[in-house]
Amino acid sequence: MTIPSLAALMPEADAAQERTVAFRRKLHQNPEIGLDLPVTRQAVLDEIADLGLTLRLSETTSAVVAELDGAQPGPTLILRGDMDALPLQEDTGLPFASAVEGAMHACGHDTHVAMLAGAARLLAARREELAGRVLLFFQPGEESYHGARYALEEGLLDDTDVIGAFALHISSQFESGTINVRSGPILAAADTFRVVLTGRGGHASAPHAANDPVPAACEIVTAVQTVLSRRISTFDPAVLTVARIAAGTTSNIIPASAEMEGTIRSFSEETRDDIHTRLRTVVSGIAAAHELTADVDITPGYPVTVNDETFTDRVRGVASAVVGADRVVDIENPLMGAEDFSYVLAKYPGAMAFLGACPEGVDPDLAAPNHSNLVVFDERSLASGVATYAGVALDSLRPTA
Ligand SMILES: [Zn+2]
Ligand SMILES: [Zn+2]
Question: Can you name the residues that pair with 190 across neighbouring β-strands?
Answer without folding.
Answer: 265
